[in-house]
Write a structure and sequence with these properties.
Layout lengths: L3 E7 L22 E3 L6 E3 L7 H16 L1 H5 L6 E6 L7 H8 L5 E7 L6 E5 L1 E10 L2 H12 L6 E6 L3 E2 L9 H11 L5 E7 L5 E2 L2 E7 L8 H16 L16 E9 L3 E10 L5 H17 L3 E8 L2 E2 L5 H12 L6 E4 L4 H7 L4 E4 L14 E3 H19 L1
Parallel strand pairs: 1-4, 1-5, 5-18, 6-17
Antiparallel strand pairs: 2-3, 3-19, 6-16, 7-14, 7-15, 8-12, 9-11, 10-12, 13-14
């Protein structure tokens, strides 16, 4: 079987959140809408930049080559393979199965992500984490009686923040963080009736709601358990500054508590950690073990749902040189950069493949936010870039 050139884009998108915030699409995130701007026409909608339209750019570029006289008469030297994968937010099982089942045998991989036409050759690693904290028997009984009693009362507070992708938490404001700050200031013994926030583990949460009963007088309250676990998280975060990698923005490892939910007998917290290549495996494992121990001390379960190590492709790789020459030819910057977002490149690199990440649209401050958008001119440039790359690698 001949080696192949893999062009891959994930086709799934995150939860759009509140529809009302999608003002550019008529409060419907699935309604692709084009607006003129001073910089040219812009298309808005869920997946516009991350990354459904990138797949179309690759598809049309491939069609251009097949329809051209060169593509129709000359056999493929290294056949291009276009793949749309799934599960980018859930461990990237599409990319994993693609490689493990040897459905393709690529000599190099070009992964689509919104990089604003910058060539990304390094990426942070990623670990999704879930914590399940059980209510004490006393608190479960109190909550049941509270819900059945007509005279029971509680206090509720809504917290608001700013959504952002968890890879760029500095661009957002965590509503859950504000809520946990408030929880830490409450007197001992309060009962948590409901604690809710966020839409997924991978997004800085824009909303959170806390309902409590102040007069419960509980001995082992959920509130105290959550506060102690958060203190352990902060202790780990305090060490992140020692592992900064200036090629990334932000340079340090980051941790995001993206979602919290209340169930009948427990509270579930979901989040993720992002790790630059400067974080050794031993340091990562130590952090996770310390968090697990802190959770166990509160009778809570700590689970790692997925882990993808960081990657950095060697600058001497042929695919990097080809991409740099192509970008320079198009008048675009050939500079090599890094991206805090974990994606399928982390998977392919783990299998020893040379991989680069590139795509139209801005990722930071755009992906995972309402009114996600990309310039139509950027899509045209991406189609041209993919056509040129395939011509150089495959023909």
């Amino acid at each position: 079987r001949r080696p192949e050139f893999l062009l891959q884009t994930h086709l799934d998108t995150p939860d759009p959140g509140a529809y009302a915030l999608w003002q550019k699409t008529g409060s419907n995130p699935f309604n692709a809408s084009i607006y003129p701007t001073e910089d040219g026409d812009m298309i808005h909608g869920l997946g516009a930049a991350d990354t459904k339209l990138d797949f179309l750019c690759k598809l049309f570029a491939l069609k251009d080559l097949v329809d051209s006289s060169v593509g129709s008469q000359q056999p493929w030297r290294v056949p291009p393979v276009l793949v749309g994968t799934f599960g980018e937010e859930l461990g990237m099982p599409g990319a994993v199965k693609l490689i493990r089942k040897k459905m393709v045998r690529p000599i190099a991989v070009l992964v689509g992500e919104p990089t604003a036409h910058r060539l990304v050759v390094a990426g942070k690693g990623f670990a999704s984490v879930e914590i399940e904290i059980s209510f004490s028997k006393e608190e479960r009984e109190f909550r049941e009686e509270h819900n059945l009693s007509e005279s029971a009362s509680s206090q509720s507070r809504i917290f608001r923040g700013q959504a952002a992708h968890s890879s760029s938490p500095q661009l957002g404001e965590s509503a859950i963080g504000k809520m946990l700050d408030a929880l830490e200031r409450l007197p001992n013994g309060v009962a948590v009736m409901e604690i809710e926030g966020g839409v997924n583990f991978n997004t800085v949460p824009a909303h959170a709601v806390l309902e409590i009963d102040l007069v419960a007088g509980l001995v082992e309250p959920m509130a105290l358990k959550i506060v102690k676990i958060r203190q352990a998280i902060r202790a780990v975060e305090s060490e992140f500054k020692n592992f900064a990698d200036q090629q990334f923005v932000p340079a340090e490892p980051t941790m995001n508590i993206g979602m919290i939910r209340t169930f009948d007998d427990h509270v579930r917290i979901s989040g993720c950690v992002r790790l630059p290549p400067t974080v050794a495996q031993a340091a990562y494992e130590d952090w996770m073990q310390r968090l697990r121990a802190a959770c166990q001390a509160q009778g809570a379960e700590f689970r790692i749902g997925d882990y993808k190590p960081p990657f950095r492709t060697k600058e001497q790789a042929d695919i990097i040189e080809i991409c740099q020459n192509t970008l320079a030819e198009m008048g675009l910057s050939p500079e090599l950069t890094a991206q805090s977002v974990a994606n399928e490149a982390n998977v392919y690199s783990k299998f020893g493949l040379d991989v680069v990440v590139w795509g139209p649209g801005q990722g930071v401050g755009n992906s995972h936010t309402p009114n996600e958008c990309v310039k139509l001119s950027d899509l045209d440039a991406a189609r041209d870039f993919y056509r040129r790359i395939m011509r150089r690698v495959s023909l």
